[in-house]
Amino acid sequence: MYFLTCFCPVVGFEMDSGRLEKVERFEEFVDCGLKPDLVHAIAERDKVFEQQKTFSELRRNIENLEKNSATSLRTSVNIGSEVYMQADVPDTWHIFVDVGLGFHAEFTWSEALNYISARQQGKRS
Predict the structure, then answer these.
(1) What span, in angstroms and rounded, lies between the C-alpha atoms of 37 and 43?
(2) d(CA 98, CA 111)
């Protein structure tokens, strides 16, 4: 019986054709199965980090509004393609928060802070 052998420089020994075939199948499994899963998991993780960052910014903005007792606000709003427009907000006591699936809910400041805390707790568990 004839066996194909090759020398493996990393490990420093010869591998027969059966072992070489197993290594190639494992490499294919890693490249075609695990790597795409890893890329997907990293993308999902980045989405979660982005949501956490957005919620932290919203919390900080609400706390600043409370601290300064702001009842009205003048701001610039990005309307797309980095084009900004001036906006006047006459009543800041109620804000709209994106709750997912394209829906926005109207909250008072305290309700929004409670919602943010609940969402952040949900992401951690």
Answers:
(1) 10
(2) 13
